[in-house]
Backbone:
């Protein structure tokens, strides 16, 4: 299954005697929806997945360029969290998990590529010497002066604070603008001066409440992580974009029913304990529903059922971005590209691209497609910078080539290119986001048989989305209605 065609294992779970007679409809076929469906089906529930588009996977997308496989969406997953790696292994991809061949990156700032410093937590240093060369002498000196500041007052962190605001207050704006901002921008495509410290860097938030200086808090986070073994990130041979298809195959193998091009127009309660889902001209009866959609879609479906949750979801902002994937003749690219896996670009430097990944350097599996080509990609777009995404594909390719030439000296023409746009791709986590999520979940909890999951709730990374999906599935599996199965008997 490649995630592009309809799949139907229709209704076989109920006939297979897998232990639970209930029926759950999962709305949304991104990685969160698929992970929830897999968890439910593996527990013996009957599952139907409804995906509004003609493709599964959400922001995970495998594709081809110049006849070779490439990732057109997320390309790696955090391995220090177990959820995504365990899911990949559970659906038969364990032998295709690969660490990066190199993780040495740079920061393109002040007109030069500068080595990414070591010893930081999301760009926040534990030692000012680590940032020497990346920052100006004044910026490095400012970091070193933190010890002269009054100790951190835990009360100033009560209720949350923006990452950029807090770090700038303790260490100066330059470290935020040159390092924290591009690192956070790579994860959230957001603004460090708006993103929640508690939501985006929770371990640092907790340690900052217990230590007198921010650098001591960073060192405490590093000590806690020092015992971890194995790579920080993993990819999948053939692309992380192959994961949704493998999960979908596993779901259908367990009797699940996955339907593409099936937008849900209405979600209603029945007079019993069940649900009625309208998709096109069809009404589907269910004992439970998992909403694994972006916030705006969930908001529309919950408008009459849970107005408070709907209003909170409608207020969630999203950032859009584009990925420009380029294929070069290897000999031409290798002659000029610097060592390493790519570079980040701080927004303060005023460039079009915000990062570039040398994919063929970073992932060994890309050589399986072609050993004569070198693949790299750039990313464009941050929250509030929608004007770049209104440019034509050719303009984005040209702008990427201009920045690549300035950063690396690569002036050769690519042999092929593709632009992938992720409109509304990344939910923003501003100050107060976790409180908003808590209010949404509290409102949803008043509707038995309904659970929510996805990137908007517990983190935008793949492991966080899978963990969110498992939480939703477990909530459903604990419901008596799923154990007994009432769908089909409800009437308005």
Residues:
């Amino acid at each position: 299954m490649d995630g592009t065609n309809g799949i139907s294992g229709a209704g076989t779970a109920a006939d297979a005697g897998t232990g639970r007679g209930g029926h759950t409809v999962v709305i949304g076929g991104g990685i969160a929806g698929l992970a929830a469906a897999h968890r439910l089906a593996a527990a013996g529930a009957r599952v139907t997945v409804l995906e509004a588009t003609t493709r599964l996977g959400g922001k995970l997308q495998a594709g081809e360029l110049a006849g070779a496989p490439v990732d057109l969406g997320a390309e790696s997953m955090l391995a220090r969290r177990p959820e995504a790696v365990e899911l990949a292994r559970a659906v038969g991809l364990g032998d295709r998990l690969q660490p990066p061949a190199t993780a040495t990156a740079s920061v393109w700032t002040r007109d030069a590529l500068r080595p990414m410093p070591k010893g930081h937590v999301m760009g926040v240093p534990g030692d000012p010497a680590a940032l020497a060369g990346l920052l100006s002498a004044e910026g490095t000196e400012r970091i070193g002066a933190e010890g002269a500041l009054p100790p951190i007052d835990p009360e100033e962190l009560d209720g949350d604070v923006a990452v950029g605001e807090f770090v700038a207050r303790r260490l100066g704006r330059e470290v935020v603008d040159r390092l924290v901002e591009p690192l956070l921008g790579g994860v959230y495509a957001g603004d460090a001066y708006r993103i929640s410290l508690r939501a985006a860097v929770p371990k640092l938030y907790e340690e900052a409440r217990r230590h007198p200086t921010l650098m001591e808090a960073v060192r405490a986070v590093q000590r806690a992580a020092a015992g971890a073994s194995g790579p920080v990130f993993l990819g999948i041979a053939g692309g992380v974009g192959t994961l949704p298809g493998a999960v979908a195959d596993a779901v259908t193998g367990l009797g699940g029913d996955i339907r593409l091009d099936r937008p849900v127009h209405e979600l209603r309660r029945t007079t019993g304990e069940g649900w009625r889902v309208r998709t096109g001209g069809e009404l589907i009866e269910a004992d439970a529903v998992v909403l694994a959609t972006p916030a705006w879609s969930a908001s529309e479906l919950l408008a009459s059922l849970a107005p408070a949750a709907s209003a909170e979801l409608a207020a969630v902002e999203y950032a859009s971005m584009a990925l420009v994937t380029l294929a070069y003749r290897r000999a031409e690219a290798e002659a000029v590209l610097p060592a390493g896996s790519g570079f980040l670009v701080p927004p303060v430097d005023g460039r079009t691209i915000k990062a570039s990944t040398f994919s063929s350097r970073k992932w060994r599996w890309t050589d399986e497609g072609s050993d004569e080509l070198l693949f790299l990609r750039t990313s464009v777009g941050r929250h509030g910078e929608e004007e770049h995404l209104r440019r034509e594909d050719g303009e984005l390719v040209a702008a990427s080539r201009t920045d690549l030439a300035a950063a690396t000296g690569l002036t050769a023409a690519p042999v092929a290119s593709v632009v992938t746009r992720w409109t509304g791709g990344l939910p923003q986590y501003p100050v107060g986001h976790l409180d908003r999520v808590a209010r949404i979940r509290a409102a949803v909890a008043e509707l038995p048989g309904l659970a929510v999951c996805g990137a908007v709730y517990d983190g935008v990374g793949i492991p966080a989305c899978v963990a969110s999906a498992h939480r939703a599935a477990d909530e459903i599996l604990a419901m008596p209605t799923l154990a007994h199965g009432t769908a089909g008997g409800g009437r308005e």
